[in-house]
Amino acid sequence: MEKHPPHPDVALIFEKSRPGRRAGAVPPCDVPETADGPRIEAHLLRNDVDLPEVAEVDLVRHYTALSRRNFGVDLGFYPLGSCTMKYNPKVNDAAAALPGFADLHPGVPAAFAQGSLQLMDGLRRDLCEIFGMADFTLQPAAGAHGELTGVMMIRKYFEKRGEKRTQILIPDTAHGTNPASGALCGYEVVQVPSNDAGGVDLDALDAATTENTAGLMLTNPNTLGLFERNIAAVARIIHDRGGLLYGDGANANAFLGKVRPGEIGFDVIQLNLHKTFSTPHGCGGPGSGPVGVGAALEPFLPVPRIVRTDAGYAWSEAYPDTIGRVRAFYGNVAVMVRVCAYLRSLGAAGLRQTAEDAVLAANYVQARLKAFYDLAYDRPCMHECVFSGRRQVRESGVHTTDIAKRLLDYGVHPPTIYFPLIVPEAIMIEPTETESLETLDAFCDAMIAIAAEAKDDPEIVKSAPHTTPVKRLDEVRAARRPDVCWKGPSGPD
C-alpha cells in the first residue's frame, strides 16, 4: 500500500467541456420577439466567451466534488490560534434564520422592528453586565472595526478635554491591527517590549508613558495565551499619566464569568462576538465587534443608539459628543441573534464553564507537547499555548511551515504559525472549549508523530503535504503570479 494514496483528481470544468452538451434546456420562446432591435449595443456584445459545455449531472458532480475539498470546523479539528472557530451550536444558526429576523430590511421603520431592537438592546445590557462596562455599541462590523471605533472615542475624549495627545502604546505581542487603528487615528504608535514571563515589561511601560500618551492597547489574555499578571500595575501607570486603557477582547472566551475588564482598569474594550460567542466566521465575515466603555467615554459612543420610549424602542442620534456613525446601518444583526441564543442557552454557569474548558484544553495540549516542541513561555496558559519549532530547525532543518503543511496529511487544519512575531518559528495552538479529549489526543498524537518524522525522516516533512489535491507550492510565485484564468487548450491568446 502506498504511504500517501493519490488524491482523486478533479479536472477543470473547461476540460470536461464537450461541444453540444447543455446543463439545462430552455424551451423556444412562446411570445413574439420584439422588433425594435437588441437592448444592448452591438459593441458591448461578446460571442467569444468560450463557456464550458457540460451536462447537468456532470456540472453538479463537478462542483459537489470541489465543495468537498473545503475544510471547515464541521469536517475536522481547527486549532487556529487567536482566531479559532469556537463553540457554534447549530440551534443558534436556526435562531438567526427565523423569518422575523432574517427577512427584516435594515431600512424598515422602528415601529416594525421592535423585536430586533429589543433583542439588540437586551444584548447591549447583557454585555455590560458580563464585562463590567457602562455601555456598549453593537455597531462595529468586526474586531478591527471595533478597535478603530474604540481609538476614535479615545481621541474624541481628549479633544473634548482640550488635550493634544500624540501617542498610543502597544505591546510587542499585539494583534497586527492594533498599530493600524492607532495610526489611522493620527497617533504615533510606540511599542512596549514584553518581560521574561510574557507580560508587559513594567519598567519599559513606565518609561514610555508620558503626558503625550493617549492610552495603551492591551490584549488580555495576550497573543502568547498568557494573562497579564501585573494588570493592576499596568492600569495604574497609564491612569497616573492621564491616559486610557484599551482592551482587545478577542480572547474573551478565556475569562468569561471570571474577570470583568471594567473592574480591573479597562476604560474601553472591543469584543469579537463572532469568535467568543458563537458565529462561524472566516473569509472576511460575517463579524461583529461591539465596543464597551466606562462612564467617561459613554458620551462619545457612535450613533444611532437604541433608546426606550413610551411607544417602545426607537433610534436616537441626540448625542452631541458622539463620534458619529461607523456603519451604514447597525452591524450584522444575524450575528447578534446567534449571540443572544448562545447566552440564553448557556447562562452564567455555562459561560464560566466555557472559560474553564477552554483553559483546561489549552493546558492539556501544552502539557502533552512540551517534551517535543520548545515552549515559548513555560507557565500555565489561558485559551491557547504557543510553541516554537526552533528545535526542529536546529536538529533537522524542518521549519514551522513544514510542520503545518505535514499536519494536512493527518487531516488537521494547521494552527496559526509565525505569530506572535516575538517567538521565532511560532506555533500558536487554540484547542477551544469545544473539542473532546479524544480529538485533543488525536491532534497531539499527530504533532508528536511529526516531531518524530522531523528527526528520523525530515524530507517527508519538508516536502509535505502529500495527500492534498494541491501539493507543495512555490508560495512566493503563487502570491505574486497566480495562475487563475483558463487559457484554452492552445494556451493564452
Give a concise summary:
This protein has 493 residues and is an alpha/beta fold. It has helices spanning 56-67, 90-96, 99-102, 114-131, 143-160, 177-184, 202-208, 231-240, 273-276, 333-369, 390-396, 400-409, 437-456, 458-462, 475-480, and strands spanning 135-137, 167-171, 188-192, 213-219, 244-249, 268-271, 291-293, 305-309, 312-316, 374-375, 385-388, 416-417, 426-429.
Give the helices and strands, then pairings.
Layout: H1 56-67, H2 90-96, H3 99-102, H4 114-131, E1 135-137, H5 143-160, E2 167-171, H6 177-184, E3 188-192, H7 202-208, E4 213-219, H8 231-240, E5 244-249, E6 268-271, H9 273-276, E7 291-293, E8 305-309, E9 312-316, H10 333-369, E10 374-375, E11 385-388, H11 390-396, H12 400-409, E12 416-417, E13 426-429, H13 437-456, H14 458-462, H15 475-480
Parallel strand pairs: 2-3, 2-4, 4-5, 5-6
Antiparallel strand pairs: 1-7, 6-7, 8-9, 10-11, 11-13, 12-13
Q: Main traits of this protein?
A:
35% helix; 2 domains; Aspartate Aminotransferase, domain 2; 15 helices; Aspartate Aminotransferase, domain 1
Q: Tell me, what's the shape?
A: globular
Which regions are unreliable across 5 or more consecutive residues at pLDDT < 50? Answer: none
The radius of gyration over CA amounts to 26 Å
User: Can you tell me the CATH topology of the largest domain?
Assistant: Aspartate Aminotransferase, domain 2
Percent range of helical residues: 25-40%
What structural category characterises the helix and strand content? alpha/beta
Listing every helix as H and every strand as E from the N terminus to the C terminus, the arrangement reads HHHHEHEHEHEHEEHEEEHEEHHEEHHH
Helix run count: 15
Name the CATH architecture of the largest domain. Answer: 3-Layer(aba) Sandwich
Query: Could you give me the name of the CATH homologous superfamily of the largest domain?
Result: Type I PLP-dependent aspartate aminotransferase-like (Major domain)
Number of domains: 2
Task: Indicate the CATH class of the largest domain.
Answer: Alpha Beta
How do the strands line up in the largest sheet? Answer: 1-7-6-5-4-2-3
Give the DSSP E fraction (strand runs of 2 or more residues): 5-15%
CA-CA gap between termini: 44 Å
Largest sheet: 7 strands, mixed
Q: Average pLDDT, to the nearest integer?
A: 91
